[in-house]
Input
Amino acid sequence: MKLFDEHGRRLPSVNDRVFREEPSFYYKINQPNFDFNLILERTKKNLMVIDNLSAADFESKANLLLEKLKTNEEFSLLTNGVHIPFIYRNTSKGVDLGKNLEETILPALKKSFTEKFPEAHFKAVLQSNSELQGNIKVHPESRYDQFLDDSSEGVIGWFFPQAFQEFDIDSQRNQMSKLPEINDVKMCLSGGMDIGAAVVGSPELLINKDYYSPILCMSSFVHRDERLVLLLKAYGPHLEFWCMTQMLSKTTKQVSEQWAGGITIFSKF
Amino acid sequence: MYARICSNNNTIIIQKSWLIMTDTLQILADQEALSLVEKNKRKDQSIHRPRVHEKIQQYFKNMLDGEISPILRIKINRSLCNFHCMHCCEEPYMTRDIKKATGVKLDPRHQMDLDDYRELSRQADEAGIFRFVLTGGEALLDSSIDQLIAAIDPKKHLIILDTNGWTFDEEKAKWFAGLGGYKVQISLDSMIEAEHDEFRGKPGSYARVLTALKASKSANLELLISTCIIKDRVFSEEFEMLCSYCKDEDIPLYVTLAKPVGTAREQDTWVCTKEDVDQLKYLEDKYDIFTHMSPSYGQPGRCITVKGINTVNHDGEIVPCPYMDLSIGNIVKEPLKDVLSRGMMNSWLGPYRDECIIGEHMGFIRFHNQSVADYQKNVSHLLPVTYEHGFGKTPEIDNNDKPPSPPEILAKDRRAIFAIKAI
Output
């Protein structure tokens, strides 16, 4: 069964709420070149200590993982979409997800991004009194618990940021229960840690002088106030994290051409 | 770890965690829309305009439910104007243009009267809206503008005046302040006198703008300079001069993007690119400069259709942006809240998008201009294009049937506006 289109975007199911059936891709991400050495260096410098992994190991393990996806009939088209390799180790297993975002992921994003773009800013904004700490949990359908478990030992992964381009947040989450599992490849709906690690390694991902880029939804993460969602977005040359409402009105949720959910595949390193 | 700006009854306070600085996160809340100056202004509203203050607090309280509180921009006096600007989006609405194009002396449609404006003010108040901009053409050419301000009610709404500054001297500034006027937005399109006068089609207008700026300050009115950019102007030495002038004079600079509409419909080369807009976003960090899409009131920078600024045409048609010619409904014929709800459910207008669709999105610009051309050819020369002939032909957003409920404890405890974290 065909699960993805030729751009690597998930084909919407009957009950999915999408901006349109076939996305316009007005909002674009350029496929970055894979500089495994640089990604590893940035990750080590800004996010975490990694002693037992060389750039060559990172590259070969990442490529092996991607190859498994490419040879899978149902998922091979996913690899036509933009994909970014990353490394992540959750050194604070059991620590509250919101606290980890505040104290580890966001500062690492700031450091990596402003080192690459010294004239630009990184900013984090929380609408209303929406604290992160103590308020973020994993969506039960997202398969993100497996990512958190494995990342305590360290994972290598690929982030596919536009797999759910133009899907509303609920449909992104519901999709994970519809996707089959693959032997030897673990997969989850993208959330805060993997997206954060991917952008720490490739801080230019959302910055483009010609095109507007999609907004990366951290849809595996559910705020206690379910009207709120976590997003990473460009503001022109700048990078911003938002915890903001997904409500278009009191009874209608956002469904936007620009919002995109991602799929992350990973394996322990 | 970080501070939060909270509203507490009628004052704005900053919690003590503001003072805590760590290596990881600090709050730089004052950098954003709730700067100290802004907070002082809001505090002032609580004294002078308690109803406005109450509505601002209500807006923040309901923001997570997707509540909007857009500016309503009222075009008055048949858009009469004493200028002939090269970039005017209003020209097709002016009597002089209608007469030239159709031969009729006046727009024959019902023109909103004071009773209509009173009713609009009432409905806007009920909907939590608190800002009205009076614009034209040149709004000050309307001899009954004092009655209009009274009808809108400056105790319930902030009244903001758009002007080219031609007649806005000290006497006029005091008069406007005395009527309850809140802010003046004065157009200045170049720091080079000859360039401004040429662009505005009015010799001597640059000098009058400088007089108007001084007069506004003397009358203790809130003030900003409005300037229109065409492609590449943001990279010019002249634009940097204007930014520096505004900084020195402590006047915020509001930048609008020239749109290929009105007298500039054929000026495709004026359309700004993302590069221009990105440069503005750099400059926002350096100067007190903003566009209609800059982050404000706790919202990220985004297209402001319906949710940010709506124009009320003379006949009551609501246009969901200052620069479009397509309507989402008529508030003389149906309630304001129904018109705004319809707009929010339109796929071009409601959903989140970063770019200015009428200023940058060529797909939308083509749809817009084709709709205008078809309407003027087949239906009526008189703009705006009514809903059924424009936006009504584009998809609506599907509704949800399971809106989330706020957690009880958070809803009860919700006092804060928003927090900005910086590292």
